[in-house]
Every structure is written in structure tokens, then in C-alpha cells.
Amino acid sequence: MSRSPREDEMIIREGGCQCRAIRYRISGEPLTVYACHCTDCQRRSGSAFGMTMIVRKNQFEVLTGTPHVFDFVETSGRRRSGAFCQTCAIRLWGESMQQPDVIFLRPGSLDDTSGLEPTAHMWTRSAQPWVVIPDGVLQFRQQPDDMMRLVSAYRERGRN
Q1: What separation, in Å, do the N-terminal and C-terminal C-alpha atoms of the chain show?
Q2: Of 143, 152, 137, whose CA–CA distance to 39 is shortest?
């Protein structure tokens, strides 16, 4: 996903849950892709970090199925919601009350995950000691003050 489309090219990506009861489509380039090493993401992913692809809500559509949506409060106090399949329990995306125009997609649910490469790693102070972050990738010990830095870095990387 490090390539930016030509001006006249529309990027379409599809994905869904493991049992295929829920399917979605993204029409357009994501704003950014990042890895988060906070303890909330570690717990939610059941792994060392969680990956997120931020996409514009108006470029996201559910094709089939109805996800179950739950609300929760993060350790930071931010209110969020998450969508998952009630049949196979795969978490697919989240939404933030503070950023209502975007979807925080779990990119591992895409049909084609080749090329998934984080533009940044955040909350690295909580990263597992064996995680190696590549040189040249943005790193933040905590939450970035300005998420637009991740968006700019994603766009810039696509031009290379």
C-alpha cells in the first residue's frame, strides 16, 4: 500500500470477517496506516500491537451483513465504538466520537493484505522489547499530538 494511485485511478479494496457474513468496500486511498503498541491495542488484538487503517467514512460501505456495534471507553477516557461480526467475532472497524468523518479499519480484514506497511508506530514506550521498528518509519513514544503527521507521511511515502 505504499503506492499512490494516478489522478484518474480509483482504488477499490474489499474485505470482511472470517465467515464472510459481513463484507465491506473502500473506494479510495486510505488516509494512513499505523501500528499502535498501547496496552489497549495489545489487549484488543491479542498480539504485540494493533494495526489501523484510517479511511474516509464517505468512501466506506457495508456490502452485506449487519455488524454488532459496541461502545467503550479507552484507558485515555476517549469514547469509541467498535464493529464486529456476531457469528465469527472478528473485529472489523471502530469509530471515534471525536473524529466522526473517518473509520478506523482493522486492515487485517482486507481480502488483500499484501503491501500493508505502517507509516508510523505509536505508543512505542509500551512496545514489546523484541519488536523491531524499521529505520525511517515515524515513531512516537505516546499518542502523536497531530495525527496529520501520519497522513502527510503516508502521502509522501506514496510519492517515492
Answers
A1: 12
A2: 143
What single string gives the DSSP state of each residue in 16-56? E-TTSSSEEEEES--SEEEEE-SHHHHHHHTSS-EEEEEEE
Which three cell numbers mark 22?
459481513
Task: Indicate the DSSP class of residue 159.
Answer: H
CA atoms within 13 A on the CB side of 84: 12
- Among left, alpha and beta (phi > 0; psi -120 to 50; other), residue 126 is alpha
Residue 156 pLDDT level (bands cut at 50, 70, 90): confident
Rounded to the nearest integer, the mean pLDDT of the chain is 88
Cβ(29)–Cβ(5) below 8 Å: yes
Question: DSSP letter at 109?
Answer: G
Sign of the alpha-carbon torsion through 64, 106, 92, 104: negative
Query: Distance between CA 54 and CA 101 in Å, rounded?
Result: 10
Write b or e for each residue in 63-95: b if 16 or more Cβ atoms lie within 10 A of its Cβ, otherwise e: eebebeeeeeeeeeeeebebbbbeeeebbbbbb
Query: What pTM was computed for the model?
Result: 0.84
Q: Are 147 and 154 in contact (CB under 8 A)?
A: no
